[in-house]
Design a protein that fits this description.
The protein is an alpha+beta fold. About 60% of the residues lie in helices and about 15% in strands.
């Protein structure tokens, strides 16, 4: 009997609590909360832009002859509203991920608490059945003084383990209570975001209905059809001509540069030193391009740009596109026009940055697009139009991220938008080059 008692004490002493690492849970939850904060920041930016467009829509409603401008503003507003709903949905998914993680953690903690409580019950049951009299008896019936010391040590550890088990139970219960508080907070946030999504969808449906009414109103203005088609064609032709002239100039520059290099090589072979020095000096300097823009630099720019497809940074702090690349059907007139770039909705006078290393090959005012900066990246070009301010000069070497200027304002040809174009042999869809 005494042997069995000693064995039970040993088992209870060696049966520790299941180890729990709150670190993993906290790290995961911290990461999810960080993502939520980033998404919420995106939502706040979209909210600010939505308010700006809502104000513009209200102003456009004041006068009937501004109905088409109202349609364009609604188009941008709907694009922003769609983006906000997408961001809200992403936030809700992240909160749901946090809820799932917390519920899973609660299950693990509850199971561990149950194990601790069961162990503690066994200790209490053993202590009840084997009171202090039994402990004294266990000591007095020791076969030797050494055995008595060993048994006394076991009894002491038994009491310590009992107290430790009770402390662990209290600590784990407090941890579980805190995690359940986290869960309630997450559920509350989830409910708020779900309600916000529902509210935004209702607003969006109202805006779509309003846009439909606006379209019906201005469809009667058929005389504007010719003007719109003419304007679109003139804009496309003006941009194409600018690029054609730019590429022709680049080819002419390259031909002159090649001729200069040939003449320089021949000059270096002249036997007469005086004549050689004079001819070498004559052809040593580039005739048409800044010395900082070397062929090696252009080749390196081209290599970097070509390798960046799908990962180029956006030129402004916005990813909301109000007008897409390529052939589009006008929802008002049903006509088809071709657009050579994309329009990105921006804050008024937002910072515009170059997307890759290159140099400014031309700065030109183009009808319908305002001031446009063309940047050459080897055989690739990017163009940044509808600028309200330009901060660069022709032939200026740029590093990715350098500021080119400021985007459009309400008075600009395209309003608060940036025209962004990518060209390599032909016009490319910028969305295929920019980060998703």
């Amino acid at each position: 009997m005494r042997s069995r008692i000693l064995i039970l004490i040993t088992v209870l002493l060696t049966t520790g609590a299941v180890s729990v690492s709150g670190q993993t849970y906290e790290e995961k939850r911290k990461d999810i909360l960080s993502k939520q904060n980033n998404t919420r920041a995106e939502i706040n930016v979209l909210d600010a832009r939505i308010k700006s467009y809502q104000k513009r829509v209200a102003e456009a409603e004041a006068k009937f002859n501004k109905s088409y401008k109202q349609y364009e503003s609604l188009n941008g507003l709907i694009a922003l509203q769609d983006d906000k709903i997408e961001s809200l949905t992403k936030e809700q998914q992240q909160i749901q991920e946090e809820i799932n993680l917390t519920e899973q953690e609660i299950g693990v903690r509850q199971e561990e608490l149950k194990v601790l409580i069961d162990n503690y019950k066994k200790i209490l049951l053993f202590a009840y059945k084997n009171s202090r009299a039994s402990n004294l008896e266990l000591l007095l019936t020791s076969g030797s003084f050494n055995q008595m010391l060993i048994r006394a040590q076991y009894l002491k550890k038994f009491e310590e383990q009992k107290a430790k088990q009770a402390q662990q139970i209290r600590r784990r219960k407090n941890e579980l209570d805190q995690i359940q508080i986290d869960l309630r907070q997450s559920l509350n946030r989830n409910q708020v975001v779900l309600q916000e999504i529902q509210s935004e969808k209702e607003i969006l449906n109202g805006q779509r209905s309003q846009q439909k009414q606006t379209v019906e109103t201005i469809r009667s203005q058929r005389s504007d059809l010719v003007a719109e088609l003419t304007k679109s064609r003139e804009q496309k032709e003006a941009l194409q001509n600018a690029f054609t002239d730019l590429i022709a100039e680049a080819e002419r520059i390259q031909e002159l540069e090649n001729e200069r290099l040939i003449k320089l090589a021949r000059a270096r072979e002249i036997a007469d030193e005086s004549t050689r020095n004079r001819e070498v000096a004559k052809y040593s300097k580039s005739l048409v391009r800044d010395a900082a823009v070397s062929n090696e630099m252009l080749l390196d720019n081209e290599r970097v740009f070509a390798a960046s497809k799908g990962v180029l940074p956006w030129p402004v702090n916005s990813k909301t596109v109000s007008k897409n690349f390529g052939r589009t059907r006008n929802p008002v007139y049903g006509t088809v026009t071709e657009y050579l770039g994309i329009n990105i909705v921006t804050d008024p006078a937002a910072s515009v940055k170059v997307v890759s290393d290159g140099y400014v090959s031309q700065i030109s005012p183009i009808s319908g697009f305002g001031d446009v900066v063309f940047v050459k990246h080897g055989s690739y070009y990017t163009a940044y139009g509808n600028l309200s301010r330009i901060d660069v000069q022709k032939n200026q070497v740029l590093n990715a991220g350098d500021q080119i200027g400021l985007s459009g304002v309400a008075q600009s040809p395209l309003g608060e938008n940036l025209l962004f174009v990518v060209r390599h042999k032909d016009y490319q869809n910028p969305l295929n080059w920019l980060q998703k």
